[in-house]
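Incident log, structure service

09:12 report received: a user says their structure output differs between two submissions of the same chain.
09:20 pulled the input from the user's history:
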Amino acid sequence: MKKLLMIALAVSALSACSSPAERMAKCEAQGVSRDTCYLAEQNRTTAMNAVAEKQALENAANAVQHAQSAKVQDPLREAAFTANGINATVSNGFFTAKINGKKAVVKRFNANSYEIKGAGYVLSITLDDNGITDASWNKTHGRDNGLLQFTQK
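09:34 re-ran on a clean worker, output below:
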């Protein structure tokens, strides 16, 4: 029973579809000149293309708006870290960093965890919605490690 109903719905939906040639033949059968029927068909095609283009532009605008609202917002803007022999700074939303005055490489694991390498040290920084929660350091060679004092701006 369901299959019969689905077939009937499909046939009725497809019966409303017609090709440009069928529409031209119907138009001419009503006594309208071929040129006028052709012009009407061209206008119909142009109108359908305009509607499709308008919808595509709306979809693109909605996608851009959605992408802007879905950006990951890191709570860190600028911070300074200190420990025995270590002076590090991070700025520009964790894009630039220096350790003891030398440029360092920032690696983002996720929105809450970063690693900064440079000048023989590896700094590990953890964040939450309010900013930095924890910061520690390790030497790249050897077993020296410890906690960092931090101030964030």
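09:41 both user submissions now match this output. Likely a transient worker issue. Closing.
09:42 reviewer note: The chain has a mean pLDDT of 83. DSSP finds three helices and nine strands in the chain.
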